[in-house]
Design a protein that fits this description.
By secondary structure, this protein is an alpha/beta fold. It has two domains: about 220 residues, P-loop containing nucleotide triphosphate hydrolases (Rossmann fold); about 35 residues. The chain contains ten helices and ten strands. The protein has a six-stranded mixed β-sheet with strand order 6-7-8-3-9-10, with helices on both faces. A four-stranded antiparallel β-sheet has the order 2-1-4-5, with helices on one face. Helix 6 links the parallel strand 7 and strand 8. Helix 3 packs parallel to helix 5 and helix 4 packs across helix 5. It is globular, with a radius of gyration of 21 Å. The relative contact order is 0.14. Bound molecules: adenosine-5'-triphosphate and magnesium ion (MG). The site of magnesium ion has 4 residues, from helix 1.
Length: about 280
């Protein structure tokens, strides 16, 4: 569990980046952290990982104040995938990149091999295992970052814009895998994204930051189903949610369900004797 209590943070004196942040991310949560560019999403997760420390307030991880922690102290608990994949590349091959964390942890070699091969497989990187990481495409580097985090089996994963650079199939495979990890193993997922369709499909909860403050906390359905002007927060309402609002039918998971929901009101509104659909 990660708790932020009355957090204030600034990189430079006099320019607040995070103000009065209070939130709790419980075990097994799937939370989307949202907000316009520069709203403070990456900064907040850097505090969760002890990459930076708040100027005031507390971050608790599993009840422990992490004020004196370094990132390595949390490596067992939290896997972090950076927004910029180049910042995370350390090794000469894709395989060694994924094996890096387990080796630092001094896992037995057969466990390392099993973890690495599984992580490469689920991220679709097995065929690239001997490649030089820096020469991968942007999307492949994103998947490599996720694979490296997965190889350590963390209880919590913080994923900063990982679906960027993926095609639709790669994106769906990645998200379905994370969903299964969350549902079956109870891994907590904190996902930073600008893709609202992913949010409505996969997140259980959203936290919206605007200018360094939390302006909304709730389910995706509550976020997209409210009449709130999401543009002010730098968010785009998914098309299906817009249609739901327009036609006054409950928010639904996909277009097929949406059409079913719509069929009732449309049939009722159809002129006598006319076929509505
Ligand atoms: N290392 C840094 N030094 C100084 N200011 C920084 C630094 N990193 C970020 N900032 C500033 O802090 C604010 C919050 O940035 P942050 O990267 O957390 O936003 P974000 O919500 O992740 O944005 P994006 O969606 O563009 O990734 C911005 O005003 C940014 O310019
Ligand atoms: Mg960011």
């Amino acid at each position: 569990m990660i708790e932020a209590k009355n957090i204030n943070f600034a990189y430079r004196r006099g320019i607040p980046v995070l103000t009065d942040i209070n939130c709790t991310i419980g075990n097994g949560g799937f939370v989307a952290l949202l907000g316009h560019n520069g709203s403070g999403k990456t900064t907040l997760t850097r505090l969760f990982m002890a990459l930076d420390h708040p100027r005031s307030g507390q971050i608790l991880v599993d009840g422990e104040d992490i004020v004196h922690y370094e990132p390595a102290d949390l490596a067992d608990k939290i896997g972090y995938v950076f927004q910029n994949p180049d910042l995370q590349l350390l090794a000469d091959t894709v395989y060694e990149e994924v094996a890096y964390g387990p080796r630092v942890k001094k896992l037995p070699e057969e466990n390392i091999r099993a973890n690495v091969e599984e992580a490469l497989r689920v991220m679709g990187l097995t065929k690239l295992k001997d490649r030089y990481p820096r020469l991968l495409s942007f999307g492949q580097k994103r998947r490599l970052g996720v694979a490296a985090a997965l190889a350590l089996n963390p209880r919590t994963l913080i994923l900063d814009e990982i679906t960027n650079g993926q095609d639709a199939a790669e994106q769906a495979a990645m998200m379905e895998y994370l969903k299964a990890l969350n549902e079956e193993k109870g891994t907590t997922i904190i996902l930073i994204t600008h893709d609202m369709d992913i949010v409505r499909r996969y997140a259980k909860r959203t936290i919206v930051l605007c200018d360094g403050r939390i302006v909304f906390e709730g389910t995706p359905a509550a976020l997209f189903g409210s009449g709130e002007d999401l543009k002010e927060w730098g968010l785009r309402r998914p098309v299906v949610s817009t249609l739901s609002l327009e036609f006054g039918v409950p928010d639904v998971a996909g277009c097929a369900e949406f059409c079913d929901e719509l069929a009732g009101p449309l049939a009722a509104a159809a002129p006598e004797g006319g076929a509505a659909l």
